[in-house]
Amino acid sequence: xxxxxxxxxxxxxxxxxxxxxxxxxxxxxxxxxxxxxxxxxxxxxxxxxxxxxxxxxxxxxxxxxxxxxxxxxxxxxxxxxxxxxxx
Length: 87
Hints:
- With about 90 residues, the chain is an all-alpha fold.
- It contains three helices and no strands.
- It has helices at about 5-40, 45-65, 70-85.
């Protein structure tokens, strides 16, 4: 364990940020799974609704620095492409 006050603070701040990032990443993964479930069920309307929610979640994560903007764009692009493939 750290003895220096600033090092102790860094540990606390790091734990807080890690927990926040984990929560945001988990929410993104859940929203992506909902889109993929709708795609698997071949339900275009549900997939489009889930895609809208997932896109919002992903952009929030990118704006907070949890995901790099290119990673976020790639995730959105792949999901959109998959939803558009549904007949």
